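Slide 14.
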Amino acid sequence: MTTALVALMWVVSSVPHSTLGAQQDSRHVAPVPFVLPTGPAPRLPSGKPDLNGVWQGPYVPDMTRSARGNQGVGELPYTAWGLQEWKNYDPVNGDYTGSCLPYGMVRSINVPYPFRIIQSDTHIALLFEANTWFHVIPLDGRDHPKDLEPTWFGHSVGKWDGDTLVVDTIGSNGYTKLDTVGHPHSDQLHVIQTFRRIDAGRIAHTMTIDDPKTFTRRWTHERTLTLQGGDLIEYSCEENNKGLWEGRIKHWTPPEHK
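Slide 15: predicted structure.
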């Protein structure tokens, strides 16, 4: 994986070479560790909270379970169709992520990789380190298109509710999963996210899942995002997954919608 390779290269490059003179070795300075800032949330000139930065959420492989930095939702309220989808899921039979396909909005935030928020008065862009995906969200008051082409990440629009950014996403193609363990959803998925910068170093983030085909009611997962000192690094799966051509995992094919 490119992410691991870059990290290894950084560690190797930080070790002084034995051929350097003593004076050069003494000048080697370790990187200054990042200290999470404190104090009130910064604001843009427009007065809106400033969400810009690289943010790390907790790894959420299972949205039903609580862990450090996130509040699990417990048992999910499945419909009969949703429960059958959950029982039938087996990643050995081919998970789409093993074929380097897009994770989708929810799973992209649940993975243990950071993402950058780039904010202006008219747009928010989410730049995911995972597979270098991006998602642009308009803040100019527009609504979802009436004739929406389903996609892996869906279509999002955003608006401010006081100091809270609300992102509304529909138009999923129904192929993705919500998390690593494979909790399902359908192409009727409607995701409502909130981002509220509670101080200089943290964002309170929620994801509400509304999918009447899969669940009998909507439910909300809560977590905290923390500001990071570094930047995103390259992550690539485009060269193909080694497990595919070794035969350890199967190629994923789109399911038939029922």
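Speaker note: The chain is about 15% helix and 25% strand.
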